[in-house]
Amino acid sequence: MATADVISSDVWQVPTSNAFGQPFRLYDVESTRRSIVDEFYRTNHINQTYSFALEMREKHLKLNKRRMGIWDCCELLNEHVDESDPDLDEPQIEHLLQTAEAIRKDYPNEDWLHLTGLIHDLGKILLHPDFGEEPQWAVVGDTFPLGCAFDDAIVHSQYFKENPDYNNPLFNTKNGIYNEGCGLDKLVMSWGHDEYMYQVMKLNNSTLPPQAFFVIRYHSFYALHRAGAYSRFMNDFDREMMPWLHTFNKYDLYSKSKVLVNVEEVKPYYLSLIDKYFPIELRW
Ligand SMILES: O[C@H]1[C@H](O)[C@@H](O)[C@H](O)[C@@H](O)[C@H]1O
Ligand SMILES: [Fe+2]
Ligand SMILES: [Fe+2]
């Protein structure tokens, strides 16, 4: 049998361009999604203040909006497209499965990391009417700490000039209200799907390992995991977790593509992982 024309590879291939044929995470050049993404970051940077983040914690961490299982949430998220993303305009369930399947190819034995891929963006459910239909700027996009100066490494940092915290002397010094080495856990991050999902996992007693919690909580903190900004706030635990965040990011970012995963085909495998690490029904 002739097999020479079948190119198969055992490792997942990192693509060189996104679904629109451009490099990933280009925010400053003309691109298909530029105006949507630009406007997204303008409103995000103006409105994400320290007090707003605290208000949103108060509003959403009671987890009194809905009861459902992890897979139900994946399906519910299907109708939403992320306006902050220059690299993808597919429904979210595809992004979740693309991430998880790419990880699975390279780390066949780390089932917890497959499931982390599947669930990492489920916090975007805050866009749904049952959760108050939060605006995109309060749910998606990169995250950053509040209560200290905004770093230039944050995407579109020019828009922070109109953020009320920018001129608040309590918050606008280098370290603001924090001490170096205090640990990332002490930082109040801009509100969004990362922190929400981290808390959902924690408050519903997921048995996933600490690495999974860390990855989900900080996967949008590009200023840190890509540029090293704010690393002065890390403690030993954070430094131990960090390599997993770097590994995860490769699959989260570069698996975005127009080649879609067949949902029904992989569903039984992911249902078995959900069953292993989560209760049947969670509070959201
Ligand atoms: O546009 C994307 C998207 O919203 C992702 O879910 C988030 O994790 C990224 O940080 C962001 O750049
Ligand atoms: Fe995300
Ligand atoms: Fe993602």
TrEMBL record:
UniProt pathway annotation: Polyol metabolism; myo-inositol degradation into D-glucuronate; D-glucuronate from myo-inositol: step 1/1
Taxonomic classification: Eukaryota, Viridiplantae, Streptophyta, Embryophyta, Tracheophyta
GO biological process: inositol catabolic process; L-ascorbic acid biosynthetic process
Xref: InterPro entries: Inositol_oxygenase
Binding of Fe cation, residues: H95, H120, D121, H193, H219, D252
The protein's name in its UniProt record: Inositol oxygenase
Oxidoreductase among keywords: yes
EC numbers for this chain: 1.13.99.1
Cellular compartment(s): Cytoplasm
A molecular-function term among this protein's GO annotations: inositol oxygenase activity
Binding site for substrate: R25, D82, E83, S84, K124, G141, D142, H219, S220
GO CC terms: cytoplasm
